[in-house]
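Section 3.1 - Work completed
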Amino acid sequence: MEKLARKQVQGLTPYLSARRIGGSGDVWLNANESPFDNEYKTSASRLNRYSECQPTALIEAYAAYAGVKPEQTLTSRGADEGIELLVRAFCEPNQDAILYCPPTYGMYAISAETIGVERKVVPLTSDWQLDLDSIAANLDNVKLVFVCSPNNPTGNLIKRADIVRLLDITKDKAIVVMDEAYIDFCPEASTVDLLDQYPNLAILRTLSKAFALAGLRCGFTLANEELINVLLKVIAPYPVPVPVSDIAIQALSEAGLARMRYQVLDLSANRAYLQAGLSMLPGIEIFDAWGNYLLVKFSDGDAVFKAAWDHGIILRNSPIPDCVRISIGNRIECEKTLSFIRNTLS
């Protein structure tokens, strides 16, 4: 059967999500999930009918939260579907390209490769910022430039002045896709205020992180109305199940937003606790963190990752040499992780 698959698919290495990697333990800090298991109520009614393609109440709720107009908002099955929609809508297979800047989220490349779109790579600088001159020199046939801020897995913010310059460089050439999956932990750094000024800007958002709804699979794309209308041409007819819409609307209610903001403060405090504790240990480098995770460099990161794995503390190894990404869990999980690393390095 594999021989019947498209050649691009035959040679494709699937994205190794945290769940695909697996593991066994009682401390799971590998997927940047929230430790909060919030309860929601939804009925089993209306399931005999298809959902709206873009549920009005959900679109209006998220648009109000994000500070944009409903016509600038599209919802999808997680931000991952938003990535795929953008590639499918704007890139001709075997002709156009995307550009991304590693180390960063792996699904930009996977989505492009699956569809048969070229991937151009311009690595981040040594301080994990955009190499604007190299990007400008590699824009031939590029339709989409993906930028993640806060960046996964490094945790840093991309300089706003560089984002603005990138938007100017790509004007009338390419769409800049800002992946703001973790922006709810630092909303002041969002680029949403640039939407009206730059028609070539698209922003990806999700309820998976700060809203503690990773299992709901509900994401959003924010852009000007013309761009959103293009995406509506290629999105599935019924992308948002009725229960997903019901729960997401509750999460975006006044009470839901208040709970999310309280939990963000709690996670930020736990991040500071873990960062402070790790900083006291010898031979460790901890990088700037603006999301719900820390990137930590050890003298032997693979050894620390494996030792934690064997101990039932599931972290995420990184393509960056000797670096391990640690999601921020509840205080008990952070204490267990810090204690284990302290004992391992002593």
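Second construct:
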Amino acid sequence: MGFISRVVTFFGLILLAHAGYSAHEHTTLYSNVAHSSTVSTTSPLGVLPLDITIEALLSVVVVSIGLVLGTEKLKPITHSAWAGQIEREGGGRNPYRNLEERAGFWDVRKSRKEFADWMRADGQNAVKKS
């Protein structure tokens, strides 16, 4: 994440925290006023003020912009393009490398090749003896 995107995200989180704190304070104030006998229960004081609502929505947009600015370059959608890109780069980022290497497993192809080489060598030795 770049410096600019971190600053934008941090600023948006500060705004979001402030909107949350303001909403909490407004709710606490309303609950204290509602318990008094002078205010009716149908009063519109229970609704959050427009400035707190706008601040909360604006802060979510600013945080989203900061996070989008800080994302990495998107990877290709098709598997063949992605696999080709990894092969061109040398295969260093291949997430399936451990599965392809099969570390700790018996390599059947290698064993078959060794057996075939051994049989050829043994067959040639048998021909030379006769």
